[in-house]
Every structure is written in C-alpha cells, then in structure tokens.
TrEMBL record:
Name by which UniProt lists this protein: Mannosyltransferase
Organism of derivation: Durusdinium trenchii
Sorted UniProt keywords: Membrane, Transmembrane, Transmembrane helix
Membrane-spanning parts: 81-98, 110-131
Keyword Transmembrane: yes
Amino acid sequence: ARRWQQQSRFGAALDVVVDIAQRGGMWVLALNLPGFLFPLVELNVFACTHSSGSESWKVTCFEDAPMLVAAVTSNVFKSPCGALMVAGLHFLPLWLWLRQRTSASFPGFNLVGFLLCSGRLLGLVVEFWVLKRHVEGLLRPIDALTIRSCAHV
C-alpha cells in the first residue's frame, strides 16, 4: 500500500489486527492451549496508542517515556533494543513451537530462545507502560476549562 500510495487509516488498523491475530494463533500452536494473554495485551495497547486519532503514535506516545521504554522505541523501534523486542514479539511463539515439535538442537538454539524471551519481556515492559500511562490519563481530573468547553457542545 505504501509503495502505491494507497494507505488508509482502516488499512493500517486492519494490518495491526491481522498481525495480532496471527501471533495469537502462533501462541495457541506453541503452547497447546489458548494463548490469549499476549494478543489481549497487544489489542489493548493498540487501542491506547490509537485512541488520540494521531497517525504519528509511534513518536508522540513515547515522548515522555522512561529510559528503558525510550531505548526500545527510539528511532521508531529501529534501535538494537527495538529490534530485539520486535524479534521476540514475532518469533518467540515460533521458537517455542519448534522446540516442542522437533529435536532442534543446533548450536545456539537455546541462546536464540533466550534472546527472543528477552525481547518479548522488553515488549511487555513497553506494553504495560503504555497501558499504565493511558489509565493515568483517563483518571486525571478534568480541569475547569475543559468542563466549560464541553458544556457548550
């Protein structure tokens, strides 16, 4: 879509939802049980990051992030920590599935698993920070100016 300038907000949202559903399916296959935890967290983070309607959420959502979250999200996730997180997010279920179903024991197989687990943990740190920040924003008291401006609507 980007290549032919055919992007839309709907297409961008659909892309994320399909990615999350695919990863959810991989978690189900990898764990032989309903793997809903990660997809539910990801869907909630998706809702939180896109609730402002801003298309630049990858930048604006992390402006005031703590150091670890900033390290993961810097340069729109194109950093060493960001790459580790994305790898864990996408490939940990596949690694778990391979570990259960094959005798994959090539040199470094367990190291790959450790790195993928580390990346997924980094992802959880970022996801829970986004959720925490969003809930704090929802619970913030409404100031008098906001109340007045809403009264005229």
